[in-house]
Amino acid sequence: MIKTIDKYIFRELLTPFMYSLVVLTMVFLVNFVIRAMDRILGKGLSFLVILEYIILNLAWILALAIPLSVLVAILLAYGRLATDHEVTAMRSGGISFPRIMAPALVFAILVGSFTLYFNTTILPDVNHRARLLGSDIYRKRPDMDIVPGYFIDDLPDYNIRVNEVTEEGLMGVVIFSKSDQREQVSIFAESGRAETASGQIIFTLYNGEKHLLDLDKLDDYQREYFDSTRLTVKGNNLELKRRESAVRGDREMTPAMMYKRIDENKGRYQRTIDRMLSIRIKSPLFDGDSVVNMIAVMDTIRRLPVPDKANIDAKTRVWNRTIDKLESQERLLNSYLKQINKYLVEIHKKYAMAATCIVFVLVGVPLGIMTRKSSGTIGVAIGMFFIYWAALIAGEELADRRMLDPVLAMWAPNGLMTIVGLWISFQVSRERTVINLLWLKTVFNPLNWHIFSRTTT
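User: That's the sequence. What structure does it adopt?
Assistant: Structure tokens below.
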């Protein structure tokens, strides 16, 4: 019987999880595409390149959507079970509340394990490829935009002007060499057309004349008439050029890569400390016990009375040089510590996001039973996830500024939500009222808000 219940609840979780994952992914994806529209449109990109760019950015969207989908699935599944009184029937049959929650925990562990593998192995490499492709797209220029009556002067070798652009092609084409070219070319054509290929612009011109002048041989001037001719002009980044780069940001590294960078920065940090100690030992004016003490008493030392004025000037110069050296080393220390914190934050954020799937079970199961099946379930899930994500971002910011330990900053939201979830689960298991649902509905439903009091007639 227990195995049958496990399978039944597991199926109840799987269907809403898949639906919510698809819906949330599409919502996040549409939002991303709208924001990225100005970067990918008007660049002359092929459909496959645009599709590749969207698919690569789909990775970080999935990293956000998976934990939220777990929460939505739990709220919907257990809300449905509570609405149909199946939870009541289970508990009447002697099944405890933790046992009812167990299938959701197993489901969350499976999803969380995949999320952990995805965040630590797949996501960094995909983020790296997405960043490179995004920067390549940003540098790519669109096809040459010909505006009638204006010179196009952003080509490397020529200035071009067209009198009119029609469906048949270009009318009144004038092409001049740049002034820094040793061989000056001037072309006048009644009509023509332009096309791009292999990073170049190919002009096919009709009924015109060409003037050639070599600045090294001014007496060698050529003039020729043509019925048709072709001119190939180099373009600047008219085609998408793919780059390879070994440089990776913190979000493009696996935990192993970041731990290696942390060890390197710790080594640099220790070597900087050794240099500061060496500066302290070599200073003839300092007799303190540590670098920190020397920096702290800097102003006091400068004000020490010395009988001989010449000695004061010499002492001040030596002291200022010592302090300048120490302050420059201190800036290096701060940069190394900041780098270490940044990598630790990203490492533990990957782990914490995977553990969130399990934490949401502790909160979602009792809330799902309490709120039951309702149209506000998605709103509750998004609200909870928004609070969690805001706390995570705030912790990341504080850790980057060295105002909070990186491990504590990334795991504190999970810890607080776990405590709340355990408390709510304990209250629900004892069938106690935790939250006044009618009050919540009144407060959080905008349709129930009344700015002005109603007049009774």
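Residues 309-371 form the longest helix (63 residues).
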